[in-house]
Structure formats: C-alpha cells, structure tokens
Amino acid sequence: MLRLPEGMERVWLMKAKGMREVEIAETLGVSRQAVNKALKDARVKLFEAFFGLAEVFSWDVVRVNAEKGFMVARGKCGDENVRIYAFYIPGRRVRAFFEGEFPEYILKHAVEMGIIEKPDKKELVKALES
Amino acid sequence: MAVRVKWSYASSLVLTSIALLAVLYILTGMDAFWDLSGIIFWISLPLLWPRPVRFEENALILERGWPKVFLRRKLPLGEIREVINVSSAERLRLIRYMKGAYLWLFLWLTVGILGLLMNAPPGPYLWGNWIFWGLVAFIREAVPVGDRLFTSLCIFATALLLAGFFYRLNPDYALYFGGIGVLMALMYADDDSRPSGVLLVTDDGVYLVSPFGDEEELLNNLSSVLIGEGQNRKDKLQESDWGAANAQTP
Predict the structure, then answer these.
(1) Residue B21, in any domain of the structure
(2) Range of the domain at B176
(3) Tally of structural domains, chain A
(4) Do B85 and A62 make contact, defined as CB atoms within 8 angstroms?
(5) Does A1 sit within 8 Å of B250, measured CB to CB?
(6) Range of the domain at A22
(7) What's the Cα-to-Cα distance from A62 to each of A65, A95, A128, B52, B187, rounded to whole Å?
(8) Using an 8 Å Cβ cutoff, are B148 and B194 in contact?
(9) Quick check: is B132 in a domain?
(10) Is residue B180 part of a domain?
(11) pLDDT one digit per residue (tens) for chain B, 250 residues
C-alpha cells in the first residue's frame, strides 16, 4: 500500500492540521511553490491510494478527502451492505475499518487532523458522512 | 456525463441578473425589465448548456455551451481536494458546499414577497410561485441527501402554508399550491429523486459534475486517470526533492 515520501508527508500533515502554505514554507525553509507542488502531488498520491484500495476490494467510493486523508466507501460483507472508512495514517499508511469500529489511535488521529473535536466514534462517523 | 448548469459563476450571474431585473420590474412597472430578464434566461440556456466531461492525461475538462463551447475549465488533478458521490453520501447536506443557495433563497423570496406586497402584474399566482420554487430548491440543498421523508414533509408543509395564505386571495390559488405540494412531496419521497452527481471540491471552488445517473462510471474513469497519473508521478518522484530518498511503493 502506498506511503507518501517523508518530506511530502510532513508538508501534507502540516497543511491538514491547518497551517497555511506560507507558514509551512517558512517552517521548513523552502519556497511556497515547493510546498504547493508537494501538496498537489500528495493529494494525487492519496487519491491514487484510496481509489486503488476501492478498486482492489470492489468497493463503491462515496467520498475521498485528500486534504484530511480519509475515504468513505460502500462494500459487501456476505449479503450485507457495509460502510467502510479508510484513513491515511502518517507512518502507518492506509488503514480501513468496517461500520465505525475504530480503534483508539484512529480517534486520536481524527482529533489531531481536525476531523472531530473529541475522540468519539459516533461523532467521527457523523463527520465522515456529512 | 456533464457539468450541471447551476452553481458556476456564470450561472450565478445569470440568476442574480434575472432576480434583480424582476425586482426592478416590480418597483418600476416597466415591462422592459421583465422582457430583458426573459431574454437573459433564454440566451443563457444555450450558452450554459452542459457538455460531457472529458479526461485528459492529468486533468478534467469541464465545458459548457451549445452548439459551440463557450465556457471551459481545465481542472488539474492536483487541485482536487475532495471527491464526493452525492447520491451515496446519505448524510451530506449540499448546502455545506453550495453557499450560493442562501443567496438564491434570499433573491427568490425577495422577488416573491415584493411582488405580492406591490400587487405587481400579472398577479399573486406568479409571485407565489417564486416563493414556492425558491423554498423547494433551498430545502433540496439543506436537507441531508438520504432523508427523503423529511425533504417531502418540508416541501408539503411549505405548500400548505402558501395554500393557507393564498386561500384568502383566491381559493383557486390555494388549490394549485396544495396540488403542486402533494405532487412534489410524492416526487421527492421517491429515492430516485435524490440529488445526484459527483462533487469536486477544489482550491478555487466547488464543481457539481452531473453524469445523469452514472456517477459510478465517472468515478471509475476518474479512478483510472488518478491511478495512471499516480503511476507516472511515482516514476518522476524518484528524481524529485520530496521523494528521492523516501519514495515507497507496496
């Protein structure tokens, strides 16, 4: 499964946590154009990872957010339709979960990324779906 | 697959112009404003006619216009932040992305209420329709995509309120709004009538690409392009500053 190159991942993470491109450039000591290019490349790579994952497992993509690094998809588990939530976790690549069965580290990650304010499973599902 | 007519800057300009000309017509009574709004509407139809979305190597091409292309937007893949299959996103409220809906509601209600207050020709029936359809469009964007029952109830309640108001003016109008309310409520209760299309959230705005019921095909094409593009970039990354030392593949 795809993993973003370290430098690109750092830029993407800083942006996902709410930093502006100029601030990222100043922090890393690179040009704003380099930051912008890294972000665009990161988005394409994340889309590639999520769409690729959906294709491999024949899931229907509902939503892919390359800015915060998550995907919502529909799939089959036996005869049942299930909802799948996948996240790009820096250092751990992509992790997918069925029907909101999130471990603690995903909730913590979602809070860090600004997807939710407090680590709550229901709140995370709501944020991902709406 | 085509770009849906509404929500572009050009469409916004057309709809705002029509509403403002209608206000001027109501305030001044000059037929020229009304005629001009009609002319703008009919001219805008071919100019903004949706055309199929094309995929280029690393971009989506969104075009409008008939018989020739009048508006064109090249959307590089790197500019896309988010992709949403609207009909599958049960709890999605389109209004979260379509802030223009507030403006349309304001404009349509302003025209309708002003027309009623000024008793402008051709009469309350027309101005009531501005209010009703303005509210229906807003409800459609404001209620979660999958909540068909609530959408229907809101539309029916809107029609009932208007019917109650118009009953005092003319019972025929009340009958019309009651009838259209039932019809629209039944129509919107049907799952097939849920909003559809693929929402593309980009750096410079939101595009609702409407593939007329074939969102999966659009997403599959997008997926193919993205995966192909990703492969190309993966090769390039081996030589770039960001990826040289750390590029990892499965």
Answers:
(1) no
(2) 93-143+147-193
(3) 1
(4) yes
(5) yes
(6) 6-129
(7) 10, 17, 10, 22, 24
(8) yes
(9) yes
(10) yes
(11) 444 433 467 778 888 999 999 999 999 999 999 999 999 999 998 988 888 888 887 888 888 888 888 888 888 888 899 999 988 888 899 888 888 888 889 999 999 999 999 888 888 889 999 999 999 999 999 999 888 899 999 999 999 999 999 888 888 888 999 999 999 999 988 878 888 888 889 888 888 887 666 777 778 888 787 776 555 544 544 433 333 222 222 2
